[in-house]
Amino acid sequence: MTPPVSRDTIEEIVCANDFLSFFIVREFFEMATIKDVANRAGVSPTTVSHIINKTRHVSDELTSRVMAAIEDLDYRPYGLARSLRRRQSRTVGVLVPDNTNPYFAEVARLLEDRFFDQGYNVIICNTEQNPQKELAYLQLLIDKAVEGAIFVSTGNDPEAIEMLRRQRMACVLVDRDIPDLPLDRVVTDNQKGAEVATDYLLGQGHRRILCIAGPQGIASTEDRLRGYQRAMERADLPQLISHGDFRIQSGLQKFLDQCDTGDLPSAVFASNDLMALGVLHGAAKRGMRVPHDLSVIGFDDIHLAEYAVPALTTLRQEKSQIVEAATTLLLERIASLHRHDHTPEIQADLPSQSPVHHRVLAPTLIIRESSGPASQREHDYL
Length: 382
Known about the structure:
Layout (H helix, E strand, L loop, with lengths): L6 H10 L2 H10 L5 H8 L3 H9 L6 H14 L5 H7 L5 E6 L5 H16 L3 E6 L4 H13 L4 E4 L6 H9 L3 E5 L9 E5 L1 H14 L5 E5 L5 H16 L5 E4 L4 H13 L6 E4 L2 H13 L9 E6 L2 H5 L5 E4 L2 H22 L17 E4 L2 E3 L9 H6 L1
Parallel strand pairs: 1-2, 1-3, 3-4, 4-5, 5-11, 6-7, 6-8, 8-9, 9-10
Antiparallel strand pairs: 10-12
Helix pairs in contact: 1-2, 3-4, 3-5, 7-15, 8-9, 10-11, 12-13
C-alpha cells in the first residue's frame, strides 16, 4: 500500500537530495510519469513535452487531450529534473584540498556567500590532498549535474586533468595553476611574493634564511620556492630549504629539524601561515625570542595571523579579490554555455568559443611583530 504523503512533501525530498531521488521517489510513491500522460492522451511523450515546455506548436485538440490526461493523473513535472537535464541546476561545486586550512576555509566561505547572492547553491568538497578523493568528488559533481566548479587542485594529477578535459562543465582554477589545461584561472603571483618576502629579510640584515616550502608537485609550492631561490641567488647566499605539507605540525617539525643540525637560521620564510605558526611554536620551545633571535614570515594572511603572539608578518593573498574574479569568470562561462545551448561535449573544444582568462593578483607584504632586524649574533656570525 502506498504510504500517505503529500506531493509537497515529495517535492521537498527531491529538492533536498538530487536527480536520482526524483526517480526513487517517483517509483516508490507511484507517481505519474510523462509516459503515463502520453498513453492516456494517445500521443507520444515528445508531444507531451512540447506542450508542457511550450517548445513547439501543437494543435488545440491534442493540447486539450494532454491537459485532460495531466489533470486526471495529477501529473506534475518536476522543475529539478527538467533543470538537471538542461544543466541548469543552479548549483556549483567548490573543491578545496584541505578545509582545515584556514585559508581555504575562508576562501570557501566567501565563494559560498558570493554564489548564494547570485542564486546558486554550493557543494563544497574537501579532497584532503588526495588525488583519488579529488577524482571521486569531480565525478560526484558531474553526476550531480552542477553547472560549474571552482577547483583548487591537489597537484597535477593526470587523471583529474583528463577528466576536466572531457567534461563540458564550466570550471575555474584557483590558487594552484595547472599548466596547459585550457581553463580560466585566478592565481596569486606566488614567485613575486616570495621574492618580496626574502628581499625584505635580506634588507633587515638576515643571511641564513630557512625556507620551509610546501609539498612538491604543487604549482604554488614551486613558485614560492623559486622566488626565495632567486632572491638568495642575487644575494649570493647559501639556501636552506625544507619541504613541509602546509600544516602547522610540519612547520614546527621542519624548524626543529633545522635547529638540530646546529645551523640555526636567523629568519624563516614559510610557504604558508600555518607552517609559520608552527615555527613560532618551535622558537618558543627552543627559548628563541621572536623577532629578536628569529624573524618569521608566512604567506596567506589568514585571520589567525594577526592574533598570533607575536603577530605574524606575512604575504597577504587578497581573498576577496580572488573570489570576486573567480565567481565572475565562472558565471560568465556558465552563461556562455547556456547561450550556446551546448550538449555534453569535450571540454577542450570550449576555449574556442571564448578566450581563456588568466588573472594574476599581486600579494601584499604585511609587516607585523614577528620580523625585524637581524640580531648581533647574526652579524657576529658573518
